Amino acid sequence: MGGRVINFDIEQEHQRTQHYDWLLPVYFRSMDPQAGDASVKTLFLECRTTTVPKTLVPNTNVLEFGEIPVAFKKTQEILIKNVGVMEETLRLQALSPFGGFSVLNAMRTIKPGETKPIVVQFEPLFQQIQEERVVMFSDHTMVSVLLKGTGVRPEVKITPEDGIVPFGNILAGETAEKTF
């Protein structure tokens, strides 16, 4: 049905916000066979949303750890840049204790134009694909990065299966090579 937009602080880019009012149609049909009325009914839902300029920008939207053996660790960095005009003091939304992901360093204040690293560790607890979103926020904005990794249990098979590689007779001082 469309909507209406209201702009605030258009002259000051860093304070600019947009507020939207939406009128959304919701269509439904009665599932009660006793009602005898199979016509489509319409309700209208009013929604209000607000957008603000992004001030914290990550260097990646997805941080991929790849395949890591269970109980081993790998660390990587996310770089967060403050593109706004105010200092942003970061806070972290708690990660799942069973996901295998953790943030190792403390959240710091990022000055305008400055970039700070966020060190993330992946230590899989189980053999499975794991995904979780790390969410960092300040008083004015938030930023999130999808974390992906796979916990694996490597298995080794030896051929021949009995593990015996016969070398036969070899003279002293000679060498022999075989592949297994």
Write up this protein.
The chain contains no helices and 13 strands. The chain folds into 2 domains: 49 residues, no CATH class; 97 residues, Immunoglobulin-like, CATH 2.60.40.10. With 180 residues, the chain is mainly beta.
CATH homologous superfamily annotation of the largest domain: Immunoglobulins
Q: Kindly name the structural category.
A: mainly beta
Radius of gyration (Å): 29 Å
Question: Largest sheet at a glance?
Answer: 4 strands, antiparallel
| Overall residue-averaged pLDDT value | 87
Instruction: Kindly report the CATH topology of the largest domain.
Output: Immunoglobulin-like
Order of helices and strands: EEEEEEEEEEEEE
Query: Beta-strand percentage?
Result: over 45%
Distance between the termini: 70 Å
CATH class of the largest domain: Mainly Beta
- CATH structural architecture of the largest domain: Sandwich
How would you concisely characterize the structure shown here?
With 180 residues, the protein is mainly beta.
